[in-house]
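Researcher: Re-running this chain for the archive, since the previous output was lost when a drive failed. Same request as before.
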Amino acid sequence: MAPTIPLDTIYTAAEAAERLRLTNRGVIKLAKEYGLCSRRGRDYLFSEADLLGLWEVLREPAKSQKPAPAKAYISDFRLYESLQKLTAKKKGPGRKRWEATNEKNRVLREATKAELKKWEGLEPLDHSNRDPEYWTAERRERRRIESLAKKKGWMVRT
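Model: Regenerated structure tokens:
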């Protein structure tokens, strides 16, 4: 069965490189990057259309920039409104949210102080002790609570 569309001239990598005035490796790298080649084993083959595609890839883009689009006119009123928004004082979280947060912090502070009262008569923790058996669950919890209290300023630093 005869092909209906005749094949163009087929070039090897060396012939394509000579025709485009590039190196073999340069032609192959460009062709692989843009999918403009055929491969059989270790040989790269190029059709006339592939060479034209490589030539288009090599073309330098235009240097002149497109003209900037015309900006819409902002009325004085809109300008005034946008300046008002930009310079307006930012409102805080609001009184209710502040009170809720303050209440949570108060409850946490009271609970922490109650825990600290429980350990008041005991000897202080040995923070330099690296023995795993020394750090029981109760001592780890005590260290966590004391650290929290020191960070928040609810306990006098020792």
